[in-house]
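During the no-cost extension, the postdoctoral fellow (Dr. R.K.) reprocessed legacy sequence entries with the updated structure-token encoder. One reprocessed record is reproduced below for audit purposes.
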Amino acid sequence: MFYRPEDGHGLPHNPFNAIISPRPIGWISTRDGAGRDNLAPYSFFNAVAYVPPQVMFASTSAKEDVDGTKDSVANIRETGVFCVNVVEYAARDVMNVSSAMLPHGEDEFARAGIDKAECEQIACARVANAPASLECKLTQIVQLPGEANFAVFGEVVGVHMRDDCVVDGRFDVTRFQPLSRLGYRDYTVVRDVFELKRPDD
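Re-encoded structure tokens follow.
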């Protein structure tokens, strides 16, 4: 099968998300200029550089009560900071609750019953018991083609790692089993890890 996106795929559901999978989930916490916290998962998320460490996530829709985007991007525009929280399998249900489209200013931490903690380097809340949280300062917001597509880039200025996830000097993902997004309503979890050495190692 071949299709051109501009012509449509003719299938009952869009296959694009399923083709590019699995995708790590960036559970993005932000705070608006009035001090109200927000938490939302984004599966268009990844690390993009080592030195300095940098990450990105993309928001691809808009809310009626926010100007042309969603709460996360609007808050980051106001404050210039955000935090990426890693989602473990055990948090799959509360992560899903936090994806609800709530009115601007309503706290998803409170709605989902998620404990929060203050970040160290930025004025923002983070998921208290997340396996890891990355405190980020905004470097740029890039508007992509499309009505509400924005890519947000940030430099990581602080890293939290839960103590039980650090084993023999390594951050061990099998200790918490990262949740990843597939296509449609499907998710997967990392339980098995194997190693490959590069030819020039």
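Residues 71-79 form the longest helix (9 residues). The mean pLDDT is 97. The remaining legacy entries will be reprocessed before the final report is submitted.
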